């Protein structure tokens, strides 16, 4: 039988958030730390999303850690391979690779109130940790469409985040289901090589031009020599994205210029009036994530590409049947149908001391945390990219780094004050979420479209409804008074004595 590994801080996941935690905590002097990662390499979503055309739709300088700017980005919007290489390089340069145990998947994590520690079961033994940091990602569990007959399809079927590179597409009939951020990158990349492509569109997205360009050698050299210049460019990119927040969360009228740009982009890219009508979005811009592409509309105008808007009835061995009875033959089926965000299966694996899972806790009130990071009843748990930290308009790395400030300060406070456990007070968490809900109520996300921002009840608990610098300010310091505490010397005797510290 496997032995239990005792560790002070256990981090789950080696993507941007988990690695960031490992780097920042190591710098803080936390040596007793292990990262467990289910995959065979670091990179998280940037390791998994290797589909043709995968790239970032946030500018490169902004989509990097503030402590590891990269002057070598080859273009304004980085392709997936470059970001993946960047993460691997940062892991190596910051000396945290040897802290990671690869091929280790967490199957359950339960808090033990008597010991003030977490018992974490994995596919490779058990861990006993004082602090548990979840860096499992938000957009990482593929959501497969529930379509009749999909299991009977005779050819390959795969999700964009699990692309099967062994399947040749040249000269074959391919069906892509979905028209979100992933589909709009895949379709233009494969359209020129396939014999025929059917794109199944349920909702026409808003698509803006992508102002991309290669960075010439001299510009990269300049960034290398003058890091302040790169920081200034990053700052401008940050500020220009933050302008969108006004329209997304406060004054709808502020979105008018980008709406006009979206309409003009469509009008200039698609000559055929019938196709243009098909591709015209009918929901408020920003309600779903605004997409960026210079090639999407052109790809859909190709002769070998059809946009199918009639709903799918079922999949057969040889293709897709739509509700009008038409049969659309296909050799390969690509599902670009997004991810489980507010209903991540990982939430079922994390239990409080009474055995109640995060999924259960969040099933009635919805996904809620304090400052996106800590959850009442789950002491010493820090959820990176947790509730209300997602973004549609800017770099998620900025939000992750804000959470890392909070995490590092929490660990520092626990060390300095001799605390064994911290558990956010329920009343504090509730008040925080009441205010969040009020702010979210005014956003464009609740104007009637469907998106991964929303949960089954139609609330938007996944996204941050304000300027991102407001979140940065909130998470600058660990506000210990918001927490019930137990001390290191009395962890076992005070399970209910925690109340005394109120
Ligand atoms: O997923 P999505 P995604 N039958 O949920 C459709 C990030 N990302 O993987 O709109 C038919 O956006 C669904 O239709 P509808 C980014 O944050 C970033 O594309 O619900 N269709 C929709 O069109 C992004 O927002 C980058 O009517 C079905 C699509 O599938 C997030 O990941 C790149 C269906 C799902 O769109 C998710 O993007 C890629 C069904 N049963 C992704 N079920 C960057 O560049 C769903 N759909 C950083």
UniProtKB/TrEMBL annotation:
Q: Which PANTHER family match?
A: FAD_NAD(P)-BINDING DOMAIN-CONTAINING PROTEIN-RELATED, L-ORNITHINE N(5)-MONOOXYGENASE-RELATED
Asked if Electron transport is a keyword of the record, the answer is no
**Designated name of the protein:** NAD(P)/FAD-dependent oxidoreductase
Per the record, the similarity remark reads: Belongs to the FAD-binding monooxygenase family.
Q: Which residues are the signal sequence here?
A: none
Query: Could you read off the lineage of the organism from its UniProt record?
Result: Bacteria, Bacillati, Actinomycetota, Actinomycetes, Mycobacteriales
Which superkingdom is the protein from? Bacteria
Gene Ontology terms for molecular function: flavin adenine dinucleotide binding; N,N-dimethylaniline monooxygenase activity; NADP binding
Q: Which UniProt keywords apply?
A: FAD, Flavoprotein, Oxidoreductase
In terms of InterPro entries, this protein maps to: FAD-bind_Monooxygenase_sf, FAD/NAD-bd_sf, Flavin_mOase-like
